[in-house]
Amino acid sequence: MVGKEPAYTYLKQCIQAGKHVITANKEMFAHHGGELMQLAQQNQVQIGFEATTAGGVPIIQTIKQLLQVNQIQGITAILNGTSNYILTEMRKEEISFTAALRAAQELGFAEADPTNDIEGMDAFYKLMILCELIFGKQPDWKSVTLTGIQGITVDEIKKAQLEGKRIRHIATVSIKNGNMHAHVKPCIISEGHPLFPVEGVENAIHLQTDLVGSLTLQGPGAGSLPTASAMIEELCMLPLKPKATKEQNRHEVTTI
Fold this sequence. Notes:
Blueprint: H1 7-16, E1 21-22, H2 26-42, E2 47-48, H3 59-66, E3 72-78, H4 81-93, H5 97-106, H6 115-118, H7 121-135, E4 145-146, H8 154-162, E5 165-176, E6 179-190, E7 202-209, E8 214-220, H9 224-237, H10 246-251
Parallel strand pairs: 1-2, 4-6
Antiparallel strand pairs: 3-5, 3-7, 5-6, 7-8
Helix pairs in contact: 1-2, 2-7, 4-5
């Protein structure tokens, strides 16, 4: 279910009814995730949202574990597999943006309407979800630099490659002097950058922490199977409910 509504209303009603919920809806969760997480805590249920952020990469569970002792100071990430695939194909095959996008659509990596992917909104929503989880707040959305990849040319990619560099679509957030700074935009990076080797539909999230130091998680970020994997993994982590009596079963209502 895509879009903010009716997904937000349905999830809120389920949580208020004492139901655990799992969602892959990144747009809705970027807007309402903080409220829903607080509501789930109040109703003593769990809300799973691993699939909203990086496909098959278990970044949400990793962050939840790190936050027990580490302070995460910043994120640098490739959060959209479609855009990364297009940039990779443009470089490897020396083809235009349009041709690479068409190939992504034929392989099922891009939607018929790829606007959210190529203009950066998909990565933006994911970054806002990570900000809410890590810092308990989001930056002012209007302050976030948001630039897509549709204007990148083959010549720009070739020039970067001749210099031993690559163009990646990168989402970044950091805290400086108590202020949150974020952007989602194409960046030229060199070989020493942690996201330099991330190719195709892969996603990768590089975390800077105070204790464990730097940590990078990488894996498939586009396609139905990575999303399904993330949702089923969270389903398996839900607490088992004690067997109900016949009287309890008679009054129980299950929301699907």
